[in-house]
Amino acid sequence: MPGSGVNERHALSRNELLALLRRVFEAIFGKSCDYEAMAEQIAWLECHGLGGFDLLCACLNRLDNEEHPSDGLLIEASSADSVVNDLDAGGASLLCFGDVLADLLVARCADRESCRVKIANLREGQAIIPQLHRMALAGRFAAARITNPSNGTSWYAHVSSSAFLPVLSGFQETKDCGALVSLNVVCAANEHALQEAMNSLDPQWPEPTITPGQLADCNADCLRNGIPVSDLAALNAVADRILVEATEDSRRGAGE
Fold first, then answer.
1. What SS3 state is found at 120?
2. How does pLDDT run across 30-85, given as a tens digit for each residue?
3. pLDDT averaged over the chain?
4. pLDDT at residue 254 tops 80
5. Residue 183 contacts residue 128 (beta carbons within 8 Å)
6. pLDDT tens for each residue of 81-129
7. In which order are the strands placed within the sheet that holds 84-88?
8. Which of 115, 127, 128, 236 could bond 108 through an S-S bridge, CB–CB 3.0 to 4.6 Å?
9. What does the pLDDT read at residue 250?
C-alpha cells in the first residue's frame, strides 16, 4: 500500500524483466557494452532461482559510479594463446564481459582438449553460471570455481554439452556479492577433459547442492507464473535516464 513502508511485490514476465534490465544497463553503459547480454545474464540467474535481481540491486550503485576496466582485460585475454591464461580484472564486474569471455573460451577450445582462464580481483563472479550454460549450448563442457580469498570460501559449477544446465556445489547467492573474488573457469571438448579439469580445480570437488532439474523447475515456474520482484524504484530511476525530453526532433525520430 502506498505510504505503508512495505515494498509491494510484483510478478513480471521474463520479457518485462528483460525490457527493464536492458534500459538499466543501457543507461549505465550506453553503447560501450553489450547491454542486451548483460540483461540476459541477470534474467537467467533470476529465472533459475539464483538471485539475479538481488545481485544487481546490490551492485547497482557501484556499477553506476565507477569506471569499467574490462576492455583492456578482454584485449589481454584474446591476444594470449596459451592453455592457461592468468588475468587481473582490476575490480571489474563479470557482468560487463561474461558473454565475451565464454565465446573466447569456446573458440579457444576448437583445436585443443581444454583451455583455462584464471581471473583475480573480479566482482560478480556468479555471472559465470549463465555463461557455462552458453558454453554447453555451443557443444562444450565447462567447469568453474569461484573463491573469496578474504574468507577462503569457494563455490563450484560444471556443465556438459548434453545437459546444458549446470550442476552447482556450495553455491552462495548474493553473499559477498561486492567482494573481490578469483575465478577459475575451464572449457573442455569432451567429458574426459572436463573431469581432468575439475580435478585440477579441486580434487575434492564437493557434492551437488543444486541440480539441473531444480534449475529447470524454477525456470518453468517463472515462465508460468511470472517473476516476483519488489522495490523496483532504484532500477526504474536508472532506467528512466535513457528517456529524452519530447522535442520536435525526437517526435520525428519516433515516427510521430
1. strand
2. 777 788 899 999 999 999 999 898 889 888 888 888 766 555 566 555 555 555 57
3. 83
4. no
5. yes
6. 555 578 888 888 999 889 989 998 999 888 889 999 999 999 999 999 9
7. 84-88, 114-122, 181-188, 141-148, 153-159, 167-169
8. 115
9. 41
194 near 243, Cβ under 8 Å?
A: no
Q: Are 227 and 11 in contact (CB under 8 A)?
A: yes
Residue position matching grid coordinates 553503459: 29
At a CB cut-off of 8 Å and minimum separation 6, what does 9 contact? 228, 229, 230
- Report the number of distinct structural domains present in the chain: 1
Where are the extended beta strands (E) located within 40-180?
A: 84-88, 114-122, 141-148, 153-159, 167-169
Q: Is residue 247, in this structure, part of any structural domain at all?
A: no
Instruction: Please answer whether residues 36 and 250 qualify as being in contact, where contact means their C-beta atoms are separated by less than 8 angstroms.
Output: no
Euclidean distance between the first and final Cα of the chain, in Å? 37
**Inside any domain, residue 2:** no
Q: How many CA atoms lie within 13 A of 234 on its CB side?
A: 15
Please check the confidence at residue 193 and state whether its pLDDT lies above 50: yes
Given a contact cutoff of 8 angstroms between Cβ atoms, the answer to whether 126 and 179 are in contact is: no
Domain coverage including residue 236:
10-242
Burial class of residue 213 (count of CB atoms within 10 Å of its CB; 0-12, 13-18, 19+)? exposed
Written as one letter, the residue type at 152 is G
